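haha ok so turns out i had the wrong file open the whole time. this is the CORRECT one, sorry everyone. sequence first:
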Amino acid sequence: MTVPKHLEALAEIVLNNLQNQHDWTELKTQQPNSGLSRPLISGLPPRRLYVHPDEQIEIIKAEKDRSERIPQPPDCEWVVPTHLAESWSVKNFAAVFDAIDPIPPGGAAPLDALGAEDDGARWMQWRGPKRGKRILLAIVQDDSTVVYYLMHDGIVKPRQN
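then structure:
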């Protein structure tokens, strides 16, 4: 299945924005295996984009027990390039979530980089392949302005301040 040229151009705009304006690394344009005709981008942001509220509580408890900070390296993320004029439905988003794995290919962080000395660390249940599926929706305007929204597959507990 060939990708339409306008979708390739959107992906290129978003990829350049992530790389040059937001300092993302390891950026790749990818096509999921399920026949989705839209190119997706995977990459590594300079810092972590999302911490689950329950994970945040467990990290605070673990840091108190250890008397040291637990490193929070960023996770590889999926980015879906779209244009502001596109109409998206729940069905469209469901197709994207069905086509992806929780972590982009080659994007899993080693456990030792996360500071997990034991496999039983409760805060680790929200990291790596155990995390829920999420995408960063990149919406491009005609003037090449890009706005990003983090979207999760399913219902997610809201963050607490």
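The domain at 5-152 is CATH 3.40.1350.10 (Trna Endonuclease; Chain: A, domain 1).
again sry for the mixup
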